[in-house]
User: Fold this.
Amino acid sequence: MKSYSIFDLPCVRPLGRYHQPSARSAGALPLFWAGSGLELCFTGSELHLLLEADFSSAEPWIAAELNGAPVLRMPLNQGVQDVCVFRGMTPGVPKHVRVFKETQPVSDDPAHRDVS
Assistant:
């Protein structure tokens, strides 16, 4: 399995607002607002995302769609985690994938920061 930076993949389109220079230098796409995320065309058989979250009272939730159908909806744990979006798909066949944050930022949670 190969790992790539989100910004090194030609078929990835970020969704939502973020500060591009700081995100590129950090090598991570921040997902602070609900609906922010990424969209991509993928031909592999398995897709994992490395996500990081922090909070003290309200965990952030993410969702994913594969070819327009929901395949994942889950809260994130604190810290860094490997999230499998799908596996066992036919290699070489294009798949349209959207991954996005579902929850709004929580202003009264001092530890809440963007998912990246």
In short: The helical segments are 20-26.
